[in-house]
């Protein structure tokens, strides 16, 4: 990808902000997990396996330019996100809260 489009990797502070966005909306709308359909306890924090994580509706691997589109984000349990084989949705940056 050398298109020169600004599309930073899914990492760092932006991921933290994306997670806060999804959690805020999910809590307000009482959204269940987008993968298993079970409720999410939005009070749990990473890395609790039942905590909220950012699931990409369109996978980043196929739609990298949708990575930072809030319309492409949905809440899911961290463990569901991981077991769905979309670990890239989590981003390594989730572990590095700054
Ligand atoms: Zn789930």
List keywords for this structure.
single chain; alpha+beta; globular; disordered C terminus; binds zinc ion; 2 strands; 98 residues
Describe what this molecule looks like in 3D:
The protein is α+β, with helices and mostly antiparallel strands. It has a domain at 48-91. Helices cover 28% and strands 10% of the residues. It is built from three helices and two strands. A two-stranded antiparallel sheet has the order 1-2. It starts with 12 loop residues before the first helix and ends in an 8-residue tail after the last helix. The relative contact order is 0.25. Residues 87-98 have low confidence and may be disordered. The protein binds zinc ion. Zinc ion is lined by residues 33, 35-36, 38, 76-77, 80.
Strand/helix succession: HEEHH
- Low-pLDDT runs of 5+ residues are 87-98
Classification by helices and strands:
alpha+beta
Approximately how much helix is present in the residues?
Answer: 25-40%
Number of strands: 2
**C-alpha Rg, in Å?**
13 Å
How does the major sheet shape up? Answer: 2 strands, antiparallel
Shape type: globular
State the assembly state of the protein chains: single chain
Mean pLDDT metric: 85
How are strands sequenced across the largest beta sheet?
Answer: 1-2
Number of helices: 3
Distance between the termini: 28 Å
Compact description:
With 98 residues, this protein is of the alpha+beta class.
List the SSEs and their pairings.
Layout: H1 13-29, E1 52-56, E2 73-77, H2 78-83, H3 87-90
Antiparallel strand pairs: 1-2
Bound molecules: zinc ion.
């Amino acid at each position: 990808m050398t298109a020169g489009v600004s599309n930073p990797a899914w990492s760092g502070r932006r991921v933290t902000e994306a997670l806060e966005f999804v959690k805020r909306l999910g809590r307000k709308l009482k959204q269940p997990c987008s993968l298993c359909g079970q409720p999410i306890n939005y009070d749990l924090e990473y890395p609790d396996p039942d905590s909220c994580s950012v699931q990409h509706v369109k996978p980043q691997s196929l739609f990298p330019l949708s990575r930072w589109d809030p319309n492409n984000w949905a809440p899911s349990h961290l463990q569901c996100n991981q077991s769905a084989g979309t670990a890239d949705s989590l981003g390594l940056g989730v572990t590095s809260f700054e």
